């Protein structure tokens, strides 16, 4: 099984960090929710490591992170 990843463009990591901060979560808290070690979360946010889709799926299932915004730069419409 292959893992699809986002391009390692810095913008995805910056948005991920912005979302974490918007939700008031520490690095270790979001890393835990995504099933990753803290240092991996730091690498994602710095744009130094591509963000795997399975990580984003975990965040979608366990948090209020707006994954659509991380990917597209557009906030999802309020329901």
TrEMBL record:
Q: Which GO terms describe its molecular function?
A: DNA binding
SUPFAM superfamilies (alphabetical): lambda repressor-like DNA-binding domains
Q: What is this protein called?
A: XRE family transcriptional regulator
Taxonomy of the source species: Bacteria, Pseudomonadati, Pseudomonadota, Gammaproteobacteria, Pseudomonadales
